Amino acid sequence: MAPAAALTVTSNAFTEGGAIPARYTCEGQDTSPPLAWSDVPSGTKSLALIVDDPDAPDPKAPQRTWVHWVVYDIPPTAKTLPEGGTLPVGSREGQNDWGRTGYGGPCPPTGRHRYIHKLYALDAMLGDLGRPTKAQVETAMKGHILAEGRLVGTYEKGKR
Length: 160
Description:
- The chain is mainly β.
- It has a single domain, classed as Phosphatidylethanolamine-binding Protein (Alpha-Beta Complex).
- The protein is 5% helix and 35% strand.
- Strands 1-9-8-4-5-7 form a six-stranded mixed sheet. Strands 2-3-6 form a three-stranded antiparallel sheet, with no helix packed on it.
- β4 and β5 form a beta hairpin.
- The longest helix has 8 residues.
- The N and C termini lie far apart (50 Å).
């Protein structure tokens, strides 16, 4: 299978590799940042978004990847997710690592963590998977990825 094409993922809240503003974290409103994308290939039937932190619990000694948000079956006509995570009609959410659906913002216990916003263009709808985990959504996506893109932001809690 050919390598997936590239999607362009951006946010007007932070730049690639830049700091995520506190309003989108546990120290602020804990609301999702605005995201936008382009270069969705023809033949795309749905999009999926996974936001995770590969630096948990400590970027100097990471032990696991913490999942912050899982969204799938986003209509291919959607070009953005607005601040606050209002999802386009038909979109579905999976479980984050707090055991709930929806966005959970950065809240690292120590150090500056990376938050990777991964967007996938798929040649299929995944359908009702219940409350799937990231792993279950990734399994369902296998063989269906037409393109992917990422946007990385960072966050470190303020000193109190």
